[in-house]
Design brief:
- The chain has 3 domains: 2-227, no CATH class; 235-300; 306-449, Heat Shock Protein 90 (2-Layer Sandwich).
- The protein has helices spanning 2-26, 28-43, 47-79, 86-107, 113-127, 136-154, 169-182, 185-269, 276-300, 310-318, 345-362, 394-397, 414-424; strands spanning 306-308, 328-334, 341-343, 368-377, 380-387, 428-433, 439-446.
- The protein is of the alpha+beta class.
- Helix 3 (47-79) packs antiparallel against helix 6 (136-154) and helix 5 packs antiparallel against helix 6.
- It contains 13 helices and 7 strands.
- The strands form 2 sheets. The protein has a 5-stranded mixed β-sheet, covered by helices on one side. A two-stranded antiparallel sheet has the order 1-3.
């Protein structure tokens, strides 16, 4: 794709050079108009007509050389890897000199190569300050327009004749006519002012673009560094917390195995004296240990997922919440015949628990209502949790998912953990809250991933 784009740019550049070379043939009347007006200004002694003719002369060659110079730059960029390389500058110089030689041979106008060499040098210098961005071609076109305007007026300064400037036939004719009217004081003054003015504007414009781009680049680097620091901070927090949890959970397996072994020994020693009640106690203890072992395995191996109904999951979550003591009214509405979900039971339960705990905390030990609505929408399972708490301030809504963000002085890991768990199950989570009017959290879990 990049090669095709460069090929198109090169083709456009070549077409512009050819068109610029052929313009004098197409606009032959333009040249006659300039020559006729020079003669009329001399016969009528009208310096005003001569000044207008000078503007027409500048406009004519501005059109011709804008196409040639711009085409040469496009052709150069098509064959160069970098616009700032020495090869790129040398190639541009070679293409321009070749184009000017061909133009001189076609029309025998005795072009001033000194003026064009100065133009090329200024363009090469200013080009190095133009940022390589999507507006490169537009910026170069503007700078080229200003520099050519400056250099074309330079050709009409009679004082620069000894240095080889303005040697083409029309420029010489204009300066000779001016010598009759004002002994060259008119063009020496006005052409110098115009030349200096446009060159100054070109330089100022280039450096403004350079400074703005540098500022944008610096700002982007600063933003990238901030983003990297934030990511590093989050990663460090996650890694530390995750590592500590895994180490703690992993270490829990050892005492569990010990307890399991001791209970087995006790059961063997007391087998003869066991009553039915004691046997039930041993059975319940053994089941609890097995559940804890399963929980530990699921936490350590977070990608371990099992099939479970949404009712079983919510029953498991609510069984660990102390709702009666805090006057919390929990209402659950589950659509019948929902498919089972395929989740990591412990981690997903912990995620739902975090949402409930946030709602409970927001009530500040006052009575509150939490409504859970679960239903199927197309190929998604929707879990909608709504409370009538104080809600979340709008300024905090964008920050609640960030690691470490908290308005209650907690660790700030709750909702970021929830988001990570939901996304790990290929789902999505959104929050809608109006301050002082409750919070709604919606979890969408794709059914096709529940396999």
């Amino acid at each position: 794709m990049r090669k095709e784009r460069k090929l198109i740019i090169g083709f456009i550049g070549l077409a512009l050079i050819l068109y610029g070379e052929l313009i004098p043939l197409v606009f032959h009347d333009w040249t006659l108009f300039i020559v006729e007006n020079i003669l009329k200004s001399i016969t009528s002694q009208d310096s005003g007509r001569l000044l207008v003719t000078s503007f027409v002369y500048v406009a004519k060659y501005l059109l011709i050389f804008s196409l040639i110079y711009y085409g040469a730059m496009l052709l150069t960029l098509a064959f160069s890897k970098s616009k700032d390389s020495i090869i790129c500058s040398l190639l541009f110089i070679c293409i321009m000199i070749a184009s000017l030689v061909i133009f001189n041979l076609l029309y025998t106008e005795q072009l001033s190569f000194q003026g064009h060499l100065l133009t090329i040098a200024i363009l090469v210098l200013l080009k190095s300050y133009i940022p390589a961005q999507k507006h490169l071609y537009l910026i170069f076109a503007i700078i080229l327009f200003l520099v050519l305007l400056s250099m074309l007026w330079l050709q009409l300064i009679p004082a620069l004749n000894p240095f080889g400037f303005g040697t083409n036939d029309i420029a010489v004719s204009i300066k000779i006519a001016d010598s009759f009217f004002t002994t060259n004081s008119l063009l020496n003054t006005l052409a110098t002012i115009f030349s200096a003015l446009f060159l100054k504007i070109a330089i100022i414009f280039t450096f403004l673009i350079y400074l703005v781009n540098k500022q944008i680049t610096t700002l982007k680097q600063y933003q990238d560094q901030e983003a990297e620091l934030e990511e590093a901070r989050i990663a460090l927090m996650e890694s530390k917390v995750y590592e500590e949890i895994n180490m703690l959970v992993h270490d829990l397996k050892t005492p569990l195995v010990t307890v399991e072994g001791l209970i087995s020994l006790i059961e063997l020693k007391l087998q003869a004296e066991q009553t039915n009640t004691l046997a039930d106690y041993f059975k319940q203890t053994d089941q609890s240990i097995n559940k804890m072992k399963d929980m530990i395995s699921e936490i350590i191996h977070e990608n371990t997922k099992k099939s479970i109904t949404i009712k079983e999951l919510l029953d498991y979550v609510t069984s660990h919440l102390s709702l009666d003591e805090q006057l919390i009214d929990l209402e659950t509405n589950i659509e019948p015949d929902l498919p089972s979900i395929f989740v990591n039971k412990i981690r997903f339960s912990r995620a739902i628990s975090n949402i409930f705990e946030n709602a409970i905390t927001s009530f500040s030990e006052k009575a509150g209502h939490i409504h859970i609505d679960v239903k199927r929408i197309d190929r998604n399972l929707l879990i909608h949790i709504k409370d009538n708490g104080p809600g979340i301030e709008q300024a905090h809504l964008e920050k609640i998912w960030k690691e470490g963000f908290s308005t209650t002085g907690s660790s700030g890991l709750g909702l970021s953990f929830v988001k990570r768990v939901v996304e790990n199950h290929h789902g999505s989570i959104t929050v809608n809250s109006v301050f002082s009017n409750g919070t709604e959290i919606t979890i969408m879990l794709p059914i096709q991933s529940n396999k």
